[in-house]
Fold:
Amino acid sequence: MSGRFNQLARHLSHPLANFTHPSAATVARTALAATAMTSSAKFFENKSKTIHTAACLIIGDEVLGGKTIDTNSAYFARWCFSLGIQLKRIEVIADIEDEIIEGVRRMSANYDFVVTSGGIGPTHDDITYQSIAKAFGLPLKLYEPAFERMKKLSKPHTLQADFHWDKPSPALTARLRMIELPYDESIDEEKQSLFVADDSWVPIATVNGNVHILPGVPRLFEKLLDGLKEVVVPRLADPEGNGSYRVLISTPLPESSVAAYLTDLALRVLPHGVKVGSYPRWGKKRNTVTLVGSNKEYIDSLVADVEKNVQGRRVSREDEDDPPSDAETDQ
Structure:
């Protein structure tokens, strides 16, 4: 680092009381309480193992309060489906440190690939980085490559006429909170963070090898998540990235009429990795049966039998066979 950057980093190591960096003693106590939650060996184990399962942790009071509609979890679900990753859990939690710590530890332990969304802005209630750092007994460190990209790719607000990148100020401190990342001193810095978009300064921080911290702004979340494909695809069970395969079958029968058949079918196809779904479409005359899995040939071989037993047909979208005036149906 340059002398000026070191000077600036030292100044910024004493931010406002609400988000003070943990002292060495605090970090040590947190690490002990976490019972060695993280280590370089665990980091590389999680970072290299085959990805079968995923989870998503949406962080933000604004989502729980109804101010913001969460679209990131739906985008992540489609992203996982397209790659053949089994999305096992989505949770929405408040900007509360203890909840973030508990949620991210549990997901990291139980799933192969975890993303978080939200809580990495410049204000006092953006506590995702510091909370995840505490979850794994890590300090925060100003990430210089992100600082250099931030200076190049972002501009100060027009109402911040006196703002300077090399002059300490509350505005600069607030900006740099967005690039103070959890840091494991035993692991090379470049292995803990990556940039996936040439036109963005926002890094994706990776903690414990399988937790990826993403912003909550949908357009940024989507861009960075798509950028992760290049890293994720080689670690899939199917490196070709063919993803999951879904068949929709439209039926005029109520769910109660097809329940017994679908229960038997689900048991028969489960060993082949196929899931059977039944979805009522309230107020419509046709319901939907789905077959989902990775074995396209096997799923296609089931279609004729399913069509016969539910008196339906394969469709490309749920409403394909709806009559013009589809008012109601007997459920």
Remarks:
- The longest helix spans residues 255-269.
- Residues 138 and 184 are 6 Å apart (CA to CA).
